[in-house]
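Input (Restriction endonuclease type IV Mrr domain-containing protein):
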Amino acid sequence: MFYKQFLKIIDILDKSFVEEFDFWLATLPERIAKTISVSTVASRFEVKYSAANAIINFAEKEGILRKRYLVVCSNEECQFFYDDFDADELIKVMGEKVYCHNCSKEFKISYDNILVVFAKVKEPNIPEEKLEEEIMKRIGDTEKNEVYGNFSIADSLAKNINEIYNLYYNPDESAYKKMQQLKTALDGPFKTTTEKGDALEKLILFLFQQIKNVTATNKVKTYTNQFDCTVCFDEYSDSFPYVMKHMSPYFIIECKNETTSEGKGKTPSNTYFHKLAGIMDSNNAKIGIIVSRGEPSKEDMIIAHDNFLLHKNTNCPKFLLSFSENDLEKVIDKRQNLLQYMNYKMNVLTMNAKNPTYDMLEQENK
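Output:
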């Protein structure tokens, strides 16, 4: 085994596949090692896409590979390589019109012409002489079979919903540490009820500010109400996952840091759901979220589902979601993707599901 890291998964994935992938990756020519795709691995080793995806994701987590986003010209007669970006760079150029020097035409950067690729960034810990020997043995066949452009539509960002989730929501360690601190602070001590309410608002604002390209504030007032948190998201794409298509132009969050006399999370009042539904009727927000310490009641969920049905066939559907401290634990402590978790919550609402779990309705990001 050239990369000793793969010994961790040799008994989980097929042993021969892991060994062959390890050998291939270690001896891969530099030019090709910059554009490794999941479909290329699946095709080369004749394994399922899920197995290829699993070993590549493992290699990324071990620091062997680094994810990049490859933009190709969308003009059918061209489809030439334009440039590659990391996640932060890609967000900045998404939707822009750019000029292709190969076909001398403009094209728009969109999810359909972005490929998810991986670049090898760590060499195996083996003697250079041995590595060079193995490369010379294989370089002829590799150059012949691994030409640029050996990608599948499955590698496009538009076909990888989890990649879009991770592109827009991927907090670093310092962000998770701060979220933990803000979550711990929900229990006080507080001098006033205002301080108690502010503690949850601070957590929720910081949590949703981890979504790229959003602005979140607790300063928005109307002539009749003040919103606890308003999250603005000005982006839209037909390739967006379901929840992200409804986040634009903004959504509203009401925070209720209420506990029982025993210190347990308190079930939110029906009044909060009726009030938020009424507020949403007077604006263009499609998503409203009640964040409370306790779980919503059956009556709360009936109100939310009835409100969904009322607006289902309009040009501005309404999704009234609920987040409890148990949900915050899954997003913050277990680090489930916030956008994917919101999508799960929307599925629960629209299905009117009685006994749903996250694993039932969402595929985990591995």
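Residues 128-145 form the longest helix (18 residues).
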